Amino acid sequence: MKFLSKFYLAFIFVFLYAPILVMIIFSFNDSKSRSVWEGFSLKWYKDLMSDSAIIDALKTTLIVAIIASLCATVIGTLAAVGINAMKKKLKGFLMLATNIPMVNPEIVTGVSLMLLFVSIFGVFSAIGINLEFGMLTLILAHISFNIPYVILSVLPKLRQMNKHSYEAALDLGCNPLKAFFKVVMPEIMPGVMTGMLMAFTLSLDDFVISYCTSGTSAQTLSVVIYSMTRKSVNPKINALSALMFITVFLLMLIVNIRQMRDSDAKVGAKR
Predict the structure, then answer these.
(1) Angle in degrees, CA 14, 16, 18, rounded to 5
(2) Distance CA 31, CA 35 (A)
(3) Is there a contact between 88 and 246 (Cβ–Cβ < 8 Å)?
């Protein structure tokens, strides 16, 4: 049984990661062939760096991911603090509302946000202000779907901390704002950082919501890759996808290492 379980686990990992490994290998292929290896080369990475459309999409992706993750982290942290202080019934309802966007199909979220922005544009056009899809709508959309992940990263840290520490800081003369930053923030900072990294990773990786809310003036890498694959699969796409995979992999590795260190710290504290 142990052999079968290990074989099954190995088969699942091979099934999941073999296509990605093949893509990374063929991003170094000297020819355009997607099945025949004709020698090692970095020319597709060089062509990638000289492609202005991809470079512009990379800049847009990084700008959107950084701004969206920072804004979502601030909003999500404050929301988590508020939810944690609420009564049990209201807290349960808000947690349900927080979980829904995470299990909701992305296409539903993307179309809903697109319709919302179209409605807002109609209101503004009635008073003579013309708005269109672009960087602003893209950032707002990414903030909206990242907030629940930040909330769920911060809430466990709030539940673990001693609530009397905050009250003690108030008794010792701190005002509520100073007590929050001096006592609460250091305790929940691992959760805040994990939520921010998670939001940044999800923003880099998103396609469906970005496709629905980006317009033509601001497109992320995932949208540009989709546009390129509709015509033909250029080996530059392999190189770009390999770089994106490595970036996301490293970020998720950092998140997991932080979570493992937090777990070890908690176990050590209990001992």
Answers:
(1) 55
(2) 10
(3) no
